[in-house]
Amino acid sequence: MTALLACFLGTAAILQASAAGGAAVAYQSGIACPDYYGPVFSKDNVPAAAAPQIIDSVRRQAPAHGFAAPVTSRYTTVLVGTEFNGDSNYKVTLAHRDQAVPGHLDVTNGSVGAGLLLGTVVAKAEGIKAGTTPSFRGTPLPPVTGLYRDLADPAPRWWCSQQRNAVVSRLANDPLDSVMFATDGKTFDDAVHALGIPAIKTLHLSFYEAPPKTVSEAEDLLERSKALIADVKADLGARGLGDAITGSLPFERSVEISNQAESNVLISILPLAAISILVGCAGIGTVALQWYQRRQPQLRLLAARGSAPGALGLLAVAELGLPIVAGGVAGAVLARLLLGVYGPPGDLGDGALLSGSLVAAAILLVSLALLAGVIAVRTHREFELGRIKSGRRKGVKLLAIFPWELLTAGVALLGWTRLVDYGKGSRLGNPLPQVDPLALTYPVFVVLTVGLLAARLAWLALLASHRARLWSRPALQLAIRRLASARAPVTGVLVIGTLAIGTLATGIGIARGQEEALHTKSAIFVGAETRVDTESVIGTGKIPLPAEISGTTTIVGELTGSGNVVLVVDPQTFRRAATLGPLDSDEVGRLLGGLSSPGAGIPAIRVGNDAAQKTQLAAGLPDARTIGELPMFPIVGTKAGYVISRESLSTAQLAAVPKWSLLSGSSMTQVTEALISVGVATAVNRVTRESALDALPFYVVSWTFSFMALLGAVLGVVAVLSLLVAVEVRRRQNALAGALVLRMGMRPRALLASHLMELGALSGLAVVIGVACGVSVAGLSVPRFDPATFLAPRSALPNPTPLALTVLAVGVLVVALAGWIAMRSVRTARTAELIRA
Predict the structure, then answer these.
(1) Using one digit for the tens of pLDDT, what is the confidence trace for 88-105?
(2) Where does the chain cross the membrane (predicted)?
(3) Cα–Cα dist 630/280, whole Å
(4) Quick one: pLDDT band at residue 493, thresholds 50, 70, 90?
(5) Which of 109, 297, 299, 798 has the fewest C-beta atoms under 10 angstroms from its C-beta?
């Protein structure tokens, strides 16, 4: 079991880091355009005669580097004065994109035969139908064979990289009426040639590759992209077109970030993994000493017959090597099988399994070498040098009285000084939090210090327990005496149990704290699942909300300039659409309901903690009359501000609000399409909770401390096994003592209660100290590890009650099991045989 746990943690550290890199790559792939994983060739104002040669060069070179045919996009300049049905006031752009037709343009009328596709917005507004032949300055263009539904703003994911050129923004000052897509490349070329257009305004070539799943896949894709760009540049240079196109690597930065995320997690958890492996090696050393004690007569005989200490060490390896190797292999296999439970949601990179296996093999070799070395040194000292046991006892006594808790407290203090400034990395433009392994060890060393201190106090208490005289309660007296007779195992189990529970509580608290921080920060920052700025006609009520989104959407206005942020809300619809983060929904609902209360001034909810906050709302508005206070509010955050009702403002006052937004639980596409359907434009300020914040820094902290939680869980297994083994080792002693007290008249129920008191006191102390220490350390650390401290609310510890109850329940089960084992040995004992033995 010792080898299993050591190899499990060593392998898990490697797999955890590799999976973190894969999860980072998957996250970066999800926020990047799907044709940006590979190389991108693009340039504006490309000579029309050079465009075919550029496209041909990229298409010929791509297969040699593992890329399929590129998707080519071409756009002309705005053709001002395009004529439809005799009206020459239209402004259009001719475009063509491979694979757009059919598949990625929704043709609602007509066909996709050779010709042009016109957007339905202009077509319906101006009565232009399929079959119309447009012209530009007297030159006929290919006929309009079909009408397509204009691309929404923002564009669908396949069109992500073409947002600037393929999407028409319906703002009042937009210079473009529609993008007319040619159904095939020949139609586009013929139109450009017929019009005599000298240059393609934008030429764009990219590749729709499968998103990389691991860092190694992303790096391979990056290297192939660099090679393709170099070959295309060389080929065009040979044709005299060296500067005709520019190659770029949009995903290069994402690869660097993913690689850094993997390195950050690995470096951060290495100290914890090293500590756990050292503890495992110490366990192997303990196993070696126990084996030596059991085999001492045989070893003495072999040494007397001339066996060298090294040979005796190899004898230990021969006896214990197979279970150690079996345990180590099982630990490595379990680390891989359970990765989905404890690790990040990412695929393993190439070589991760091999590296993890090598680490496990190294741990096994060290364990076997340590086993042989301990036995060899011990036999050499005792059989050849004749060292007396008193010297060993003095050394053990010195180790016992050494103030180890002072040493661990010093390391914890050093980690705390480094933790204070931990979160500054992301504020300096670094997308990931800084790496400081010493700061990450702070929680572990605090818990370890508390555990060592508790063990020392327990040791002293047990030393003085012989003064206890509680024979009026024999069950309690016997429990105290049993604890006192096994001080070393008791303090050992107490240290391991406290460290396990404290580390588990700390790891889970910090990991979940960062996940909840991301959730609540995005909720307060955005205010809903989707926020879209819109025109004032929606805010003033001249145009009602579209029916498609009215059930999930609310309208908010924003006023600034008076020193306060004033949010104008609709109390009736705000609660159903807004996300309140950590705020109490009932309290918010109560305060929103009070915004219509009569009285002097405008009833308002005061936001923030500024004691000197003024009551002035905005020019031309009465002062605020505070009906309640909240520490923060959606969109406002923790800044000084007020929340007022739309009903408190007149029509003229509503018209003076400079900024109106929609908060909606619907998707961005649903909101924008619904607004366009009623002729309302959406401004460029659009945000969703998924895209509002860079979640990767939060994930990296969470992935790092999930390993600490894993370490706590493993130590918890060690603590449980230690307790059960301690009971089993004392089986004969407990059986004899129990049988005798039963013969003397104690009831079995009282004897069971005595064992439960003994074991319950030990496990209960570990649970109470571990949970209290772990929760306290996590509460102090969570805000320090916040990678976005500039956004409200500040990261806070999640509710620790479920964890505490779970740990308590497990502790009760373990105590019950250990008590059953102890009583079973008493019930099955043969008193006469025990006395003879």
Answers:
(1) 888 899 999 999 988 899
(2) 265-292, 312-339, 351-377, 398-419, 439-465, 486-511, 696-729, 750-783, 803-823
(3) 51
(4) confident
(5) 297
Angle at 188 between CA 187 and CA 193, to 5 degrees: 100
Residue 484: its pLDDT value, please? 79
State how far the Cα of 18 lies from the Cα of 177, in Å rounded to an integer: 49
For residue 489, CA distances in Å to 244, 309, 448, 468, 721 come to 77, 29, 17, 21, 12
What residues contact 780, with CB distance under 8 A and at least 6 apart?
none
Q: Does position 137 have pLDDT exceeding 60, yes or no?
A: yes
Pairwise CA distance, residues 503 & 450, whole Å? 12
Task: Specify whether the CB–CB gap between 15 and 359 falls below 8 A.
Answer: no
Residue listed under structure tokens 């210079």 = 175
Tokens in use for 491? 């303090």
Q: What is the pTM of this model?
A: 0.85
Residue range 412-457, pLDDT digits in tens? 888 888 776 665 555 544 566 666 777 777 888 888 899 889 888 8
Q: Is a pLDDT exceeding 80 seen at residue 195?
A: yes
Q: Residue 826 and residue 795: Cα distance in Å, rounded?
A: 53
CB 657 within 8 Å of CB 541: no
- The residues, any chain, with a CB within 8 Å of residue 704's CB and separated by 6 or more, are 264, 265, 268, 269, 440
The dihedral built from the CA positions of residue 115, 118, 124 and 128, taken in this order, carries a sign that is: negative
Using DSSP, state whether 200 is helix, strand or coil: strand
Nearest to 188, CA basis, from 51, 84, 35: 51
Q: What does the angle CA 202 – CA 208 – CA 212 come to, to the nearest 5 degrees?
A: 130
Between CA 431 and CA 74 the distance in angstroms is 34
Residues in the chain: 837
CA dihedral 332, 334, 339, 342 (to 10 degrees): -110
Angle at 323 between CA 320 and CA 329, to 5 degrees: 135
Tell me the residue type at 627. Answer: I
Separation between Cα atoms, residue 450 and residue 773, nearest integer Å: 7
- Kindly give the residue spans of alpha helices, DSSP state H, lying in 430-541: 437-440, 442-463, 474-485, 487-526, 536-539
Structure tokens at 397: 């006594």
Q: DSSP of 628-678, one letter per residue?
A: EEES-BTTTBTSSEEEEEGGGS-HHHHHT--EEEEEESS-HHHHHHHHHHT
For residue 561, give every residue at least 6 positions away whose Cβ sits within 8 Å of its Cβ, in sequence order, or none.
Answer: 618, 619
Residue 105: count other Cβ atoms within 10 Å of its Cβ.
21
The DSSP secondary structure of 275-295, one letter per residue, reads HHHHHHHHHHHHHHHHHHHHT
Sort residue 261 into left (φ over 0), alpha (ψ -120 to 50) or beta.
Answer: alpha
Task: Report, as an integer, the average pLDDT of 152-169.
Answer: 87
Alpha helix locations (H) across 527-598?
Answer: 536-539, 571-577, 585-593
**Main-chain phi, psi angles of 135, to 5 degrees:** -145, 160
Q: DSSP string spanning 130-184?
A: TT---EETTEEPPPEEEEEPPPPSSPPGGGGGGHHHH-----TT---SEEEEESS
> Residue 719: CB partners within 8 Å, gap ≥ 6?
493, 496, 497, 500, 766
State which amino acid sits at residue 758.
E
Sequence-ordered alpha helix ranges (H) in 305-351: 309-337, 339-342
B/e letters for 708-720, b = 16+ CB within 10 Å, e = fewer, are: bbbbbbbbbebbb
Q: What are phi and psi of 621, to 5 degrees?
A: -115, 145
CB 433 within 8 A of CB 423: yes
Instruction: Give the separation between CA 141 and CA 107, rounded to whole angstroms.
Output: 20
370-386 per-residue burial string, b: 16 or more CB within 10 A, e: under 16: bbbbbbbebbbebbeee
Q: What was the pLDDT predicted at 384?
A: 65
* H or E element, residue 246: strand 246-248
Whole-angstrom distance, CA of residue 837 vs CA of residue 830 = 11
Cross-strand partners of 43: 203
The per-residue pLDDT for 138 is: 84
